[in-house]
Amino acid sequence: MASFRRFVYFSALLVAVAACEDTSLENRSLVNVLLVDAPGDFDQVWIEVLGVELLPAGVRGSAENANWINLPYQSASNTVRISDLVDDQRLLIGRTEIQSGTISGIRLQLGQEMYLIQGENRTDLIADPDLDALLELDLDIHLEPGLSYDLYLDFDLAQSVRQGQGDTFHLVPKLRAFVTEQTAAIQGTVLPRGILPHIFVINSTDTLSTLTGSTGGFYFKGLPPTEYRLFVDAPTGYADTTLLVGTQPDTLVTLPTINLRIENP
After folding, report:
1. Domains defined for the chain, CATH in brackets
2. In which element (H, E) is residue 92 found?
3. Contact 7/126 with Cβ under 8 angstroms?
4. DSSP class of 166
5. Among 245, 187, 175, 185, residue whose Cα is nearest residue 221
6. What is the pLDDT confidence band of residue 12, given thresholds at 50, 70 and 90?
7. Helix, strand, coil percent values for the chain (each to nearest 5)
8. pTM for this one?
9. Is 191 helix (H, G, I), strand (E, B) or coil?
10. Burial level of 166, CB count in 10 A (0-12/13-18/19+)?
11. What is the Cα–Cα distance from 39 to 161, expressed in whole angstroms?
12. Which of 171, 158, 154, 137 is nearest to 90 (CA)?
């Protein structure tokens, strides 16, 4: 009889432990942090990426009693050609399971190596004195238990790399962070391929830009759902093009192929 009681006790204990483990798993969310780019007028831009840190809300919903969670970027080389991250290309910096709830901050960690290549010339970038502050963003993203989230960092090179005196260039990072939930996306293709026009999406409060990839494709993610004016800033010899695009939450708008018209000389 005593053996039977011990069996019942230990069985109940195992069930309780399993229940605690299940509850712990149910209260966690998977976060993938991805880097994308809105490129500038440079052949190549290389930046050393060390990782990213996330700041969850603390035990009382305040970031003041929370600790940053470090996600190191682990690769054979940490120096990344981020000018390649156009169209639908993205770089996975890291992923982790964290306690469900609110992410209140994110900061990108960069190393010392940063330079651009134009033609055959390499030019080292001069980091802004406030680099660390510019790489940290406030967030208000709520994670539901048991779900996976893609958290994007959009590095706008066109606005981040600024020419200084002479042949110097400064890195003054302009970043935005978003998850794709409840946001919109616009993708399309511009012909002829290989001419790399600038593409702008413009609403009443903001303007975002990118270049097309080698196949002529472009992709805007994380857009607040509203109506946009999409402007193709064509290179010399081609006519600019403007379209109106309406977007809705959780939708991808795929535009018909945009064939740029040759301008008469």
Report:
1. 28-179 (no CATH), 182-265 (2.60.40.1120)
2. strand 91-99
3. no
4. T
5. 185
6. very low
7. 15, 50, 35
8. 0.78
9. strand
10. exposed
11. 10
12. 154
